[in-house]
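In this supplementary section we document a worked example of the pipeline. Step one takes a protein sequence of length 237 as its only input; no multiple sequence alignment statistics are reported here. Step two produces a three-dimensional model, which step three serialises into structure tokens for compact storage. The input and output of this example are shown verbatim.
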Amino acid sequence: MIRAITLDAGFTLLRPDPPVEEVYLREFALDGARGDAAALGSALAKTWREIREKKLVDRYGGPTGERGFWEMFVERARFHFDGGTLTAACFDRLVGHFLRPESWSVFDDVVPALDALEASGFRLAIVSNWDSTLGSLLEAHGLAARFSALLISAAEQSGKPHPEIFRRACARLGVDPAEALHVGDSVEEDWEAARGAGLSALLLDREDRHPEIPERIRTLAELPARAAAAGVAAPVR
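The serialised model returned by step three reads:
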């Protein structure tokens, strides 16, 4: 019996607007870089792989903190993009852009879905790999108060796909992992990781990339009915 819902943030509730690739291309071009969106997409993907596989820097704080992580990330992305060197001015422009709430938009299906889940009695939490700015970003978009708990990797010093952040979310919501359903857009960090931690999971597959996964939805509009089918046995106190 599902009594609580945990949700990812990036590309589940919020998306960068304009897209990340467009912003990076614009700012790199001001530093003299030349290349297209495909090359940049490849550079960003390679950088994330390096971080996961080589553990180049502590994503969740560590001695260099959040700024150090993102500076390393953008430096590597620029290098993989065109072999160039990141300038301090370019990095500061990128940081400033993504700190602004207006650089992010909320998907149209988010508020109606949250309204329906709340009306059905589900407790809600965020479980997201993000830096410490996520709380203020959710607040700026009127979403923060809808959640009983915000578990942000930078603050928790733990992140997906590790099971610990899911276990903490369940504890703060007052439910067992078997009583929680997690929803997010990543196969590895959301669908697989939540199931590995003992939660039920739905993959949010907005672009229909994973028809092979049975536990998926194409839009959050589908979530309230899927959650209601699992039911709320009793209010969570």
